[in-house]
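Minutes, structural biology subgroup

Action item carried over from last meeting: produce the structure token record for Alpha/beta fold hydrolase (Streptomyces omiyaensis). EB confirmed the sequence was re-checked against the source entry. Recorded below for completeness.
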Amino acid sequence: MSEEILRLRHEGFAYSCRVNHRSDRAAPPVFLFGGALHRNHGWARRLERTLPPGTTVVTVDLPGFGAADPLPPTHDASFLAGAAWRAVESLGFARYDLVGQCLGGFVVQQMLRQARPGVRRVVLSGVCAGPWPGPQLKARLQSAEVASDRGDRATLLEVATRLFFGVAADAGAEAGQGPVPQFRERIGSLDPGVLEDLRSHLYREWFPPGAPAQAPPDVPVLVFTGVDDILTPPGEAHRLAMSYPRGRFVVVEDAGHMIHVERPDEYGQIVASHLGRDSGVIPHCRPLGASELQGRPA
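Output recorded by EB:
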């Protein structure tokens, strides 16, 4: 096993990907695209341990993410998809899997609008069909932005925690243990550069109007999220899954948007199950009931 960092540029913006080479050269590599708070050196370590042995894993800090150059909000998701494809194609793999979580999942959606023949399987979590964010969700996100601007840390933490964790926002708060307190501590200690990146993402166009698109690729696509997800409601995520010829949607019970933080081992097993074999059963998940398809307003 060896690890390398590949430095890239896309239309003047510097970014990088971390390549964790494994022994099985025949196994398709997995490209991981994370959310706004992910960095390619850390977020996927636990996930890597659940993937099939020998799998090469590539994590990408796209412009505006992690340690990459900041990206103004005038650059939309199609620009990010172009940068993502540059990373994929620079490594020269014939076949590969794509995994996108949260904003990284929106980028992978755009990648699939200009899909290459090398895509084998896809996993999208914490995502939904566009447009996103809707008016109500955007208003709540902007209230967190205003709180941050005026130094109101308590309101910022309250709004962010409720949006990301839903009904589990109070879990472990009194004891100061578990993913929610850790998330609150991290949000409260973000440096100004990261907060500016988050602000840019809020005003970025994640579903560019009139963007040219190919027919959806005829590959297995798994979409999943927590049943209590507020940021990307299950009903809207289900609509996205059904837009793919071989799309499938499931939900994780008693979870919100942050499944990878709330239950990282289960998250990894869900991803590995879809990538590793054709299975009728995805662990820790269930189908979405007909009465739940309406979803919550976003």
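Discussion: The chain has ten helices and eight strands.
Next step: EB to file the record with the rest of the batch.
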